[in-house]
Specification:
Elements lengths: L1 H15 L1 H16 L7 H32 L24 H18 L2 E2 L2 E2 L4 H14 L3 H14 L6 H14 L3 H15 L6 H5 L33 H9 L4 H17 L5 H12 L5 H17 L3 H13 L4 H13 L5 H16 L7 H14 L3 H13 L5 H17 L3 H12 L9 H31 L3 H39 L18 H15 L18 H8 L28 H4 L6 H24 L4 H14 L6 H15 L2 H14 L4 H7 L3 H24 L3 H14 L3 H19 L1 H14 L5 H11 L27 H4 L8 E8 L5 H15 L6 E6 L4 E9 L2 H12 L5 H5 L3 E7 H9 L7 H8 L2
Antiparallel strand pairs: 1-2, 3-5, 3-6, 4-5
Helix pairs in contact: 1-2, 2-3, 3-4, 3-5, 4-5, 5-6, 6-7, 7-8, 7-11, 8-11, 11-12, 12-13, 13-14, 14-15, 15-17, 16-17, 17-18, 18-19, 19-20, 20-21, 21-26, 26-27, 27-28, 28-29, 31-32, 31-33, 32-33, 33-34, 34-35
């Protein structure tokens, strides 16, 4: 009725006032078209245009910004085959969260305000774009479950809108990231036939090289492998109606590009993937004209794949394509490195490549790439089979490190492996140790690298002890005059080096000062008076030039302005501040003896004499250190490195240098063992004769005579344990006579000190019950004297004190549980306290040290962080005291462990929270709902949660 009256009113206006009538007609049309409950041409047009050019447009801009932010943090590892798509580590995601959240918010707004969904059918043609945008935003956030839910919705609701194929491809990529390769393969095969209908023939693709070279895809294994075709064409058995619907779909080249790159990604990631399949699919993808950066990345990957297949000519052709495409310098540089690595070994080719590499080495812009250039030199040496040159250039590559952790790690491990195989263990240890400083968690065989580094560190530590003590003893044996001359030489050498460094620094400062007198900075700021300094490229460029002129190329680090950094302790700094007038205070050890302070000044003689073994006692201590280090090194050679030859050499040195040493027996036994494996019969008999002659009653001698000795000994030990349990049962039931009898039998059969002490204690208590306190006192006193270091001796002392006349305690007050039946139970583990089933809701908790931070500030910072990086979530923030020193702040709640850990990763690397976490004024954990209850209700177990969190979450 209201609409009828409004139309009648407009009709009257049209007869008198045409412009007002036209204006009201437009308003009426807009009002009617805003409805999402009516399916008319006007409503469809209005919502399609408004959503496409307003909400969806803004959402796509936010999505693209987030992708660009991630791309800025991209760090590709060119030492391995590049992935088709770059997936950043989770700690790099948080900076892009606001953009992705905005894209999701805009997509949700588009659906809420503009979707005309009537009886399960959508009538606004931009809704599929909104959902695709939402799914991609979740995908880039690596929230794969939410992304999967959105893409599945698209495939179910928008079947005839041209988005099903693209959504299916993204679903396949999600499955690959979650290691569900069977599902990914099924999804790609489902969408493959449609997208491959108009594909370019593979024969054309395989010969599409502009360089007109043949592709060689010879597998290293040379086995006939049944390959998955890039896009298998299957017969379409659907009905004619479905065929018509399929023909109506508009499959864009961009979707086909995504399909073939997804196929290539599958071929590279899946266990059953083949490099040849990846090559074919990448070549087909290139026909659909990807953007320049992505196209060049595919060129580079093709070069790497052909390199793996040992087709050097094809690899070089693709790397040349990379260079000719003028990519960003990082990729161009690595393409040039790959050209060097893939040279054909001819003298002419080597001369050309060496000339190019040397030229690159001299260019200033390549200062951060010199480690890679030296590695390219080492690869040329590898191809030429020049081991010495290869080791030299690998060492130069490690030394030239600036910021490329991948290259330092790879060069260090490569050189360490070479030295390890050459049995140069000290050199190998140094480079393994360097590699550990930047070893990525996903580095191939990282556990083996860590094991070797650990073993070699133990070995080198012992070898260094031997070398140091030998040097100290050599200097100690000098005459007083010789020692004084040696000390003076060391002081002179140190002083000359100090002067040389000071002169270099003085010359550098003079040069800078001279340059500064002639330096002029002419800055043209005309027309840019209102521009901030860093928005003015001219000012920034001239400022950078002036910086390099004055300071040179300094690494970005603390105290960068100091070229020659020397470690200064807090005490030294205090002394400097006090003008050196502070008086040294004498320090004492735990026993009250004065501690002799070590000399730290290399210009004073005491610096060189303070560790010299100048007394017989000091020489004995030094020899003990050498003997133990020799034996430990021999054990490592034998047990960890399987280097029996070096183990024997070290053992023989020990025996020769320290005859009749307490380690002589185990040394001879180890010699017997090593030589038995080496089948050195004469040396086996020599070691055997020494052991049987000098140490006939030892376990070593018995083991040589009876190889089953230890097995029999283990059986006896087990039998004794059973007898001890029987003895303890008799004691617990107060069968004192039986206790004494069983104890006497067991004492006759065992020589094990710990067991003998416990049995003697039970026997003493039983005798005390039978014969009285005088007997008990004698027995306890005997235990205390014979077994002073055994745990049961403490019980004997306590019981003996209760027998004194002054004490009101009686013998019957000693509890049975005080007598150890088995080893004392270890402290409860975290897993025995906390619930290991983590498939439930989670919280993030902050432990706040109230003496260093205020909870109000923490809650404000957390709230700001949530609104910035997790704006789509609705978290609750609470706080309360858990003790006098700490308050607990909780953020609730998360669907599961994965969501909680995503939040944990983001907040712990945030600039606001990271300093507080490092100084331990703030501690952050993810915790499940059940464990949160345990943590709150069991204060005594809270300290265990750190280990639990490290094991089950990190």
């Amino acid at each position: 009725m209201l609409l009828f009256k409004l139309l009648k009113f407009i009709h009257i206006l049209k007869t008198r006032y045409i412009f007002p009538a036209l204006f009201l007609s437009i308003i009426l049309m807009l009002v009617v078209s805003c409805s999402t409950r009516q399916n008319t041409f006007g409503t469809r047009t209005y919502h399609t245009i408004t959503s496409k050019y307003n909400v969806n447009f803004n959402g796509k801009e936010a999505l693209n910004k987030g992708i660009a932010d991630l791309d800025k943090k991209r760090k590709d590892n060119y030492l391995s085959i590049l992935p088709i798509y770059y997936y950043p580590p989770k700690q790099d995601l948080s900076s892009a969260f606001p953009s992705f959240d905005r894209a999701i918010e805009k997509a949700s707004k588009s659906v809420f305000k503009h979707s005309i969904l009537i009886r399960g059918k959508e009538y606004v043609k931009t809704m599929n774009d909104a959902y695709m945008m939402m799914g991609k935003a979740y995908f880039y956030k690596q929230d794969y479950n939410e992304a999967k839910r959105v893409f599945n919705y698209v495939t179910n609701v928008y079947k005839d809108w041209g988005s099903v194929e693209e959504a299916t491809i993204w679903l396949a990529r999600i499955e690959m990231q979650q290691d569900y390769f069977v599902r990914a393969q099924a999804l790609l095969e489902e969408v493959g036939p449609l997208l491959a209908q108009n594909k370019i023939k593979s024969s054309t693709i395989r010969n599409d090289d502009k360089l007109k070279t043949k592709s060689k895809t010879v597998s290293k294994s040379k086995k006939i492998v049944k390959k998955r075709k890039p896009a298998p064409v299957k017969k379409n058995t659907s009905s004619s109606k479905n065929k018509k619907k399929t023909e109506k779909r508009k499959i864009t080249n961009n979707v086909r590009l995504q399909y073939y790159t997804a196929e290539a990604e599958y071929a590279l990631l899946a266990p059953n993937g083949e490099m040849e399949d990846a090559i074919d699919n990448i070549k087909i993808a290139l026909q659909y004209k990807p953007k320049k950066d992505f196209r060049v990345r595919l060129y580079f990957i093709l070069g790497q794949l052909y390199e793996q297949l040992e087709d050097k000519q094809a690899a070089q052709n693709w790397f040349l394509k990379v260079i000719r495409a003028t990519p960003e310098y990082d990729m161009e540089f690595n393409a040039r490195m790959q050209l060097a690595v893939n040279y054909d070994g001819t003298p002419l080719s080597k001369k050309t490549i060496m000339k190019e590499l040397n030229k690159m080495l001299k260019e200033t812009k390549n200062e951060d790439y010199r480690d890679q250039i030296y590695y390219a030199f080492s690869e040329i040496a590898r191809i030429d089979e020049s081991d010495a040159d290869r080791e030299f250039y690998l060492a130069k590559s490690v030394a030239a490190y600036t910021n490329n952790d991948y290259q330092r790690t790879y060069s260090s491990i490569t050189l360490a492996d070479i030295y390890f195989n050459e049995e140069e263990y000290i050199k190998a240890q140094a480079y393994y140790d360097t590699a550990l400083m930047s070893l990525p968690k996903n580095y191939p065989d990282s556990e083996e690298v860590i094991r070797k580094a650990s073993v070699l560190k133990d070995l080198v530590d012992n070898l260094n002890i031997i070398q140091l003590q030998d040097s100290l003893q050599r200097i100690a044996k000098m005459s007083e005059g010789e020692r004084t001359r040696w000390i003076n030489q060391m002081i002179t050498k140190y002083t000359e080096e100090e002067r040389r460094l000071a002169k270099e620094e003085a010359d550098r400062m003079v040069a800078l000062s001279a340059t500064q007198n002639f330096a002029t900075i002419n800055v043209n700021t005309q027309g840019q008076n209102n521009k901030w300094y860093f928005y003015n490229p001219g000012l920034v460029s001239q400022g950078a030039t002036e910086f390099y002129r004055r300071f040179g190329n300094r690494k970005l680090e603390d105290n960068w302005i100091i070229s020659n950094k020397t470690t200064i302790s807090f005490e030294d700094m205090t002394a400097l501040n006090q003008g050196g007038a502070s008086q040294e205070e004498e320090e004492f050890d735990e026993e009250g003896n004065p501690i002799v302070k070590r000399e730290t000044d290399p210009k004073k003689p005491a610096y060189y004499t303070q560790d010299l073994p100048l007394t017989p006692h000091a020489i004995d201590s030094s020899n003990m250190l050498i003997a133990n280090a020799m034996y430990n090194a021999a054990i490592i050679y034998f047990d960890q490195l399987s280097d029996l030859k070096r183990s024997n050499e070290m053992l023989q040195k020990l025996i020769k240098r320290f005859p009749n040493h307490e380690l002589e027996l185990p040394c001879y036994f180890l010699l017997w063992t090593n030589n038995t494996k080496l089948k050195n019969i004469s040396q086996v008999n020599e070691a055997k004769n020494v052991i049987l002659t000098k140490y006939p009653d030892t376990d070593y001698a018995k083991l040589i005579l009876d190889p089953d000795y230890y097995r029999k000994l283990a059986e006896v030990t087990k039998e004794n344990e059973h007898k001890y349990e029987e003895l303890h049962r008799a004691y617990s039931t107060k069968q004192w006579g039986t206790t004494v009898r069983l104890a006497d039998d067991l004492l006759k059969q065992t020589n094990e000190v710990a067991l003998t002490a416990k049995v003697s204690y039970l026997r003493a208590v039983a005798l005390g019950q039978i014969q009285g306190q005088d007997t008990l006192k004698l027995a306890l006193t005997s235990i205390i004297k014979e077994y002073p270091k055994e745990p049961v001796t403490e019980l004997a002392k306590i019981l003996l004190s209760t027998l004194s006349p002054e004490s009101n305690l009686t013998l019957n007050q000693v509890k049975d549980e005080d007598i150890p039946l088995k080893p004392v139970k270890e402290t409860e583990s975290a897993d025995s306290i906390y619930n290991t089933n983590l498939n439930e809701y989670h919280y993030i908790i902050f432990l706040v040290d109230v003496h260093q931070k205020t909870v109000t500030d923490v809650k404000y910072d957390v709230s700001t962080f949530n609104s910035t990086y997790f704006s789509l979530e609705r978290f609750n923030i609470n706080s309360f005291y858990i003790n006098q020193n700490e308050q607990l702040v909780t953020v609730a709640r998360f669907k599961g462990k994965s969501d909680a850990m995503n939040y944990y990763t983001a907040i712990t690397i945030n600039d606001v929270f990271e300093p507080s976490i490092k100084d331990k004024s703030l501690t952050v954990y993810a915790i499940s709902a059940s464990n949160y209850s345990i943590y709150y209700n069991k204060p005594e177990a809270r300290h265990l949660y750190k280990d639990f969190f490290e094991e089950h979450y990190k």
